[in-house]
Amino acid sequence: MLNPLLVAENLTKDYNSFRALDGLDLALAPGEVFGLLGPNGSGKSTALRLILGFLRPTLGRATIAGFDCWRRGVEARKRVAYLPGELRLYENMTGRQLVRFLAGLRGDTPGREVDDLAKRLDIDVDRPLTQLSSGMKRKVALLTVLVPKVPLIVLDEPTNTLDPTMRDELLDQLRQAKARGQTVLFSSHVLQEVEAVCDRVGILRLGKLIHLQEMTDLRGGRSVNARLVGPPPTAGPGGAPLGPNTITPEGQLSLTFRGPLPVLLDWLAKLALDDLRVEPIGLTPIYKKYHGAA
Fold it and tell me: What is the SS3 assignment for 185?
């Protein structure tokens, strides 16, 4: 890994006897997109607030570009753009005024990129925020996060209230941020959007990071489910041995394949099937292992 931009070391937060976050260790590199997964109460928002210096850790610490997020929070936050899960905006402003005001706090003066991005998000930045729906306000808040070219973008449930088209646009904007070398850290309940853009994913349960997943490992694999109507195969794709539970007595075939797609397709073409489904492995089986249904 390149010199990490964000580092969390034994990051812990207690509220009296309740431990909201338990010993989080994490390092994110420049240009990495990282997703935090877990249900409500798993510690996602607590982790983000500690990283942003909004909460004082009980144990451990977090740093951004070498600056301690609690002890040197102002310096750390200069390098961050943050979208909270629950918005609190200055509603006496228009969208444009809000973007300029927040950029001015950093010493920046946004230009044409505000209008370009507003067009892509389909919002009128010159309307007062009081006249906007919750979804439109969410888009304005996204403008305030995506316009600054800071090293780290932190998003807490960023697609809340967005329609499917705007969700796709946001994910595309996160890919562009990655291409510029920005690091993105976001929490989500939606496995599909995490799969679409993340380089790595962490799964939290009861405040503990219980699984780290490299997405390249999943994208290289496929889940195969089929129903046989002929003799079962004696070996798997490429001659690999079949596991003991690969084929049921009723002829239902289920396996996970990692390798070149032509090898899999050639193997399937030689089987007598009346039903077939081939899908990316995805995060769902891993998430279900720790949290049940996604």
Answer: strand
